[in-house]
TrEMBL record:
It comes from Monosiga brevicollis. This is HMA domain-containing protein. GO terms for molecular function: metal ion binding. SUPFAM superfamilies: HMA, heavy metal-associated domain. PROSITE patterns: HMA_2. InterPro entries: ARMC1, HMA_dom, HMA_dom_sf. Residues 128-193 form the HMA domain. It comes from the Eukaryota. Coiled coil: none annotated.
Amino acid sequence: MDILGVVTNFRDLAREPKNRPVIGQDAGSLGSLILCLDSEPAVVEIAVEALYYLSLCEDNLEPMKQSLGLTDSLRAIVRSPSSAPQLSQWAHAILSTFDMAGKPELLATMQTPVHNGFFKGKINKMARTIVLQIDGLNDLYSRNALEQRLLQVKGVVSFTFDMKTARITIRVRDWLQMEVLCDAVADTGMAARQVVRDDDGQEVMLSFGASPSKFNKENAPMPDYLDEHEMLDPEADRKAVVHSGSENQNGGWFSAIGGYLSRNLYW
């Protein structure tokens, strides 16, 4: 089996939560995946995806943070203009998780889908609702990257996703500026457009920093809350990665294929 095939196996195994602690805390396996970050693009993409799955296990965060070269390699991927958007989003998501290590309350929020329950209960008179159309929000990885970045924005009260329409509804404090939200989205490699309604009740997309023709942004009504019928389907946000079937594996097996990668990636 070639290196690409071995890394693909790692990725498939890492998709299964029960395998993540074994892989992430095995020095040979983790080190081999890090070596793959200096390989050909196809290998790099699958290795980063595998590392993303491993980062979803809280017990793996410290070993991953302490692994020589991992953080620097991920930062290089995020900053590189040649990195594919999907690859940058995975790398950014891992780095964001590292930043939250040691803060279990934030990690729990980052790795738990955000549901409509956030919008119920006592009404916050100091908050307003913004709806953004996100270019690039098309899978679990992009959603997690955006979710983790928004958790870092001061003034964001809550948010919920509609993956079918690639939109996110955000409750923010009334002093939070749109520029801050759009910058946060841009940090993940995606782009945001604000969804508002014109005088005829038709939806209009406002690009950041521009005013579309036939619409005056300053006069656009900004409702404090969405109507109930516009709230998202609770089931729409409960998507998860399809787990690939795999038999129970042990640390020795992981170390063995990790050794294979190490031998073939050192030249």
